[in-house]
Structures are given as structure tokens and as C-alpha cells.
Specification:
Strand content: 25-35%
Largest sheet: 6 strands, mixed
Oligomer: single chain
Order of helices and strands: HEHHEEEEEEHHEEEHH
Number of strands: 10
Helix content: 25-40%
Number of helices: 7
Mean pLDDT: 91
Amino acid sequence: MNRMRTRIAERLKESQNTYALLTTFQEADMHNLMQMRDEFKDEFQKKHGAKLGFMSAFVKAAAVALVDQPVVNAVITGSDIVYRSYVDISVAVATPKGLVTPVLRNCETMSFADIEKQIAALGEKARKGQISLEDLAGGTFTISNGGVYGSLMGTPIVNPPQSAILGMHAINKKAVVVNDQIVIRPIMYLALTYDHRLIDGREAVTFLRKIKSVIEDPRRLLLEL
């Protein structure tokens, strides 16, 4: 194995050996977010020079949820719990040599355009093998998008020393009930794996429901709801 794969293997096994890992699931109706993206993607790219994807919405939703449930953004250090006053989100990026997780800093203050530009820049560096240790260090939470490969559902493993990771999955059309009517909607399954030593089920489920509410109605970001 190359050095990167060896280090990835060590960290993931360390996570399983140390953490009390538990995964909770939720589903999100992507209709409103997809509609917003379709309506504004051309104007967004013309103004900001970056494509409007779904990842920026999930990063913003995660930042809001992490501020709302700060224990998910915290970490156990020895016998102490360290609460972070900032949100640095690692975004998993596949490269020919393996998966890397470059970090978006201070996501709680970033706009959609800021996020998309940084994701594009970090993704390009990763593909060219130019990611530095500084790019990878210090994340407080991770988002992994297995949906780009068609994953229906999975249980991601927490990346130490973080305490939780959000897994995004494929968007599939499903029959769901909306206002007591059966309709066809684009549905994504979401998975939150977390360290149960630190995070209780109530906080984990509340966190994931916050993600769901923001994704299903992005206007909540403007109104700070």
C-alpha cells in the first residue's frame, strides 16, 4: 500500500477501535433544492464563475445544524469535552491514490459562492496531487457524498479526531405522501454516524432533522430558522 492508503487504513481502524459508533438515518425531499438550482444555476455561474451544486447547500445546512447542536461539533480529549467555536468541514474527495478530505474553514460565515469556489479549488488540487497537509488538517466535521457513485445507503466511518460524519446518497424518485396526497419526489437518504460516547441519540436525531428541514426548504437559511 502507498503511504496515503496506509494512513487512511490506520485512522479508520483507530476510529472503530476507539469510538462507540452509531448511525442514524433520515430522508430528504430534494424537490425544492433542485428547483432552486435549476432556476438560478446559469445566473450563479455567470456571476460567481462557479457551478451551483448540491454540496454547498449541504455544507451550509451542516454549519447551521452544528451551531444548533454544538456537541456534534465537539470532541473528547482525554477526560475533557472540547467545544469548538468554529465550523471547519472536511469534504471527501476521491483521487487516483485514495480518498482525501480537504477542509473548508469557517463554514458558518461562508456563502454558497464561497463554498462552491473552495470546493472546486480543493478538488482540482486533489486531482493533481497538490493537496498539502495544511489543506487536510483541523476539520471538525465531515461530509461524504457516496451518491455520486450511485450509493443508495451506507454507514460512513467517523474521521478522528472528529465526532461525526454526514453521508449523502443517491437521489431516487419515490412515491411519498405530501399534504395527504401521493406524489413522486426526488428523495435522498442521509446517514449520520457519530461517537455515542459523546453524542446522545437526541442530539444526533435533532441534528439530522435540522439538515433535512434546511435542505427541504432552503429559505430557512435566509430567515435563519
